[in-house]
Specification:
The chain is of the alpha/beta class and 636 residues long. Strands 15-16-12-17-20-11-21 form a seven-stranded mixed sheet, with helices on both faces. A six-stranded parallel sheet has the order 3-2-8-9-1-10. α1 packs across α3 and α5 crosses α10. The model has no long low-confidence stretch (mean pLDDT 87).
Amino acid sequence: MRITDDDIKMAEELILPKGERFNDERRTFIKSTESRDVLACPGSGKTTALLAKLYILAQKMPFPDGRGICVLTHTNVAIDEIRSKIGTEANILFQYPNFFGTIQAFVNYFLAIPAYKDEFHNNVLSIDSDQYSKILQSRCNPKLLVYLQKKHKTIDDLSNYWFNPFDLSIVESYKSTQTPLRLRPNTATYQGILQLKKSILEDGYLNFNDAYALAFRHLQRHPLLKNLFVQRFCFCFIDEAQDTNDFQRDLINEIFPQDNQSIIQQRLGDNNQAIYSSLVKSENLWVPYGKPPIYFSDTMRFGKTIVNLLRTIRYDTQISLEAHPTRTSLPPVLLVFKNGEHGKVLKNFADLINAHRNKWASVKQPVYKAIGWIGKDKTAEGKACIPLYYPAFNRSAPNITVSLPNLRSFIEYLYRSSDNPKLQKDILLNAIIEVLFLAQQKHPITGKYFSKSSYIAYMKETYPLYHNIFFMMIGRWLIKLANNKINIAFVYKKMRFLIKKYILKNRISSDVKKFLHDHSVQMSITSNNNIPRNQLITPYGDIIQIATVHGVKGETHTATLYLESSYYELETKRLLPFMKGEHPNKLPQRLIENLKIAHVGLSRATHLVVFACNEECIKGAEEALRDNGWQISQVK
């Protein structure tokens, strides 16, 4: 298969802003039809290059041999992006024989669910770690709880234990041979943990670790399955490859062996941003395979001042990292404070934004964020964390409660949430669950009312075609709605039709009829407190959003404030040599972890980066810091 310059030109006109073109590095990747990986710097537009390549391949389908494309991501962001940028042109990518979804969805669909049916001759009800944790807490007996407390463990630790794929015994972690808490298998406590987890598994509830354990077990029992994957897919792309953890990487390599010449594999990532979804590892898990990688060495996001900073504050230096030729970024600011002045930092950041706003006057909707590594409240322990700077910070609690009495109100709220695809999906699912409740429809196996997770699992397993059609059509309408190509009334009418036909099978009770046909828009939106959740409105009218570094990975901001945290010690104490432009040879584990977190956090902004730290951490190094491009500002 050959990808030409004309193919690329067609993709550029659809995907890139008017007049922009892919450079030689991106064109090399887009044209490549051999197994070869991509190492990309922050803001390099690697997902955009991947979208262009997928669009071109979609135009060439069906392929002569009938095989398809497998695209694996870590979140649904890339999926939403391709649908929003390419629209109906990409529909074929979401149809057989292709697969486009998260690694977890791939594992669930092709391996974990079939493995469960093979093992227990029943249907999976839920693969969701939050749901699993709730069930675990409700079933854990008091005696086991007391034992865990004595061992300084919690119920959540039970969630993290793995089923051994060989015999479904319980082990401490992936590839571990140790039993939980180093218990002997014949002890009552070990047997209690084993029976507790097995009973939940047998009832159809899995957490994500369980899904992978069953997937490995299924491949061991049916080794010829691997041949079927290669017969179905001729391309496999993995976006954000650095974020694959050890068991994801091992499973993917078992399904698609890297030395298999029958499938073209291309993985895109940046080892400096390998912070995963909830934890950081110092090991460099992802190593580009085979031929020398293709480098995306220039950023589309920021100019020289931020590039000079990031060249030193990073772990992996093999990418040259070049600045955007026309982007002007401000010198990074080191905002230093004395002990006890943490509460003044956000106000000083607001002052810096106000002082420099003319530098980004052309930006229509500036984004300002204050971010930190540690979101959990550690203030009682005397440790720096986000709540030390902003006491109202809450990582999980919603800011508002919304009551929606009919479908028309759900659609209106859906429209108002167009900037949040995840929330839109939740709104849609909540509407469906409400319809099922009003229709008194329960899960045919459990006899319980559907939850969002149990409904998705049930539909995927029982009516996969209806499920795919339903959500594909909804996704298409939301894109058109956001682009003003259709109106709310159209979505409301079509949603009503799909719910009646595909969900209720035209069995409509009076309560359901009222819910579906009441045209009035009624929204009761109640704030949970008087303080906007995780955002600060400055005296200048700007909004500063507060979040963890993990929470903003992949985002682009106009100005970013990086809040120093305590991770065993204050971050600046570890990072100081790098902030001065040095790069020591010896990199201890915690330093590598810190470099990755800082590199992600400091690479979000297009114009202004501010790093807040205690003045004690930089005492005596001020001149070296200024020589490396920092402007030092004292908190007032």
